[in-house]
């Protein structure tokens, strides 16, 4: 795997009137035939995370989504969401909006696609809050060949040892806030996840924009966007996850020509840390190939 870190200028797309950048990492397979069509996976992390979710430097490489997919011939582009990780964090935070963030992410992807300058087939993947954002991006900026929504619920969400109302009450009016990680452990990690990995994962957490937290806790926030997506959609939930009824999630993507559901056994919300993670990745890889 060949990895390149980038800082992408998305000032114009974000429209915030100040320099705005998205931190990104492009992971490429070691061997790619010249001019052959390349599968590019564009991966967006969830709330409280950064792009390390897809290639954690604090875990062995068996936990690397990016390593697994590049070993299977696909490129992986990961970003820090605008307002998170190493990406720009505008002040006051309240100037951010889901629309501006989706536009910035779409511009970051377009810049990398232009740099690659080769035939591409692009899969957009969003985990948790990133699922909300990949839905928003796919609807407003339709440049994806398929969309995978992991651990995001359009149904009223269930949140482990806390609930939507409690988290809404804890939101600050504006600014950057930290996810209450101990309260989320039952939701995030299956019991087989080593405590050392959980603690390392929590130590590398990112603050999230309050704007995004508020949006993610608003019922129906991307229902209209989901219905407008006109490419194949994969809905993916774990046995312990955010949707009380995963089967009902399919109906929200009424504009898609093909919607599939995958349930990952022996896994909680953060699938990349589960003992069954390789099953999850293989099933997703098969779906990408089948819908290409």
Features of this protein?
eight-stranded mixed beta sheet; 292 residues; Rossmann fold; 11 helices; globular; two-stranded antiparallel ribbon; alpha/beta
Explained architecture:
With 292 residues, the protein is α/β, with parallel strands linked by helices. The chain has a single domain, classed as Alpha/Beta hydrolase fold, catalytic domain (Rossmann fold, 3-Layer(aba) Sandwich). The chain contains eleven helices and ten strands. It has an eight-stranded mixed sheet, sandwiched between helices. It has a two-stranded antiparallel ribbon with strand order 7-8. Strand 9, helix 10 and strand 10 form a beta-alpha-beta unit. Helix 3 packs across helix 4. The radius of gyration is 17 Å and the shape is globular. The two termini are 23 Å apart. 47% of the residues are buried.
Explain briefly what this protein structure is.
This protein is α/β, with parallel strands linked by helices. The chain has helices at 11-14, 65-71, 98-116, 129-140, 164-170, 181-188, 195-203, 210-216, 223-228, 246-249, 277-290; strands at 2-9, 21-28, 38-44, 75-79, 120-127, 146-150, 176-177, 208-209, 233-238, 259-264.
Topology:
Blueprint: E1 2-9, H1 11-14, E2 21-28, E3 38-44, H2 65-71, E4 75-79, H3 98-116, E5 120-127, H4 129-140, E6 146-150, H5 164-170, E7 176-177, H6 181-188, H7 195-203, E8 208-209, H8 210-216, H9 223-228, E9 233-238, H10 246-249, E10 259-264, H11 277-290
Parallel strand pairs: 3-4, 3-5, 5-6, 6-9, 9-10
Antiparallel strand pairs: 1-2, 2-4, 7-8
Helix pairs in contact: 3-4
